[in-house]
Amino acid sequence: MAKNIVSNQLVEKIESLLKLARTKVAVYVNTTLLFTYMEIGKAIVEEQSKHANDADYENTSLRYLSKVLTNKYGKGFSRWNLNYMICFYKKYNGQTLSSHLGWSHYCELLSITDDAKRSFYEKECSNAKWSVRELRRQIDSSLFERLLLSQGRTNKETVLELALKGNEISSPEDLIKDPYVFEFG
Fold it and tell me: pLDDT value at position 139?
């Protein structure tokens, strides 16, 4: 039987360091990926603007670009995804992106045309660390609209303020209160 010659504290310290390093790497990779997709969207928009008079250029160029990039770099460069990169650039250029949200989160958010509504879901998703599935569920259950409808005009102002800055914790009670939304269906 092997003798325990290493303290549990050392093992716990090393485990803690590894968890922290892995978290940092994941955040860095996610941030780099989002930045890259934003830059790809920008490059496509700039190129398409040079051919603004050619109505067929946009579809033809995206189809060709998709084919070339997919052959060279694998999945992730469908025309659909390239269109999301363009939209991502147009909607989020110059904004600070959340390190809690991945590409799939942003793709879901881009399907929302109302800026206040999209901002609300973005802030809530980031603060509550929703998965993509949970974000989709909240959107499909019309959380934003239901919160707007509850308690009249006063609540509408509160919800729109949440859309701008998200939930703020200013007292210990803010950590405890948890809104319940009952869904039937």
Answer: 95
The answer to whether 94 touches 83, Cβ cutoff 8 Å, is no
Task: For tokens 């790497």, name the residue.
Answer: 25
- Give domain limits for the chain: 7-95, 98-185
Buried b (16+ CB within 10 A) or exposed e, 18-33: eeeeeeeeeeeebeee
Mean of all residue pLDDT scores within the chain: 84
Inform me whether the pLDDT recorded for 160 exceeds 70: no
The phi and psi torsions of 62 (rounded to 5 degrees) equal -65, -40
Q: Are 82 and 65 in contact (CB under 8 A)?
A: yes
Residues 6+ positions from 33 with CB-CB distance below 8 Å: 102, 103
Residue 53 tokens read as 């008079």
Give me the sign of the Cα torsion angle 162, 163, 165, 166: positive
Helices then strands, counting H and E runs in the chain, come out as: 9, 0
pLDDT tier at 59 (50, 70, 90 boundaries)? confident
Per-residue pLDDT at 6:
83
Q: What CA–CA distance (Å, rounded) separates 82 from 88?
A: 10
3-state secondary structure 59-72: HHHHHHHHHHHHHH
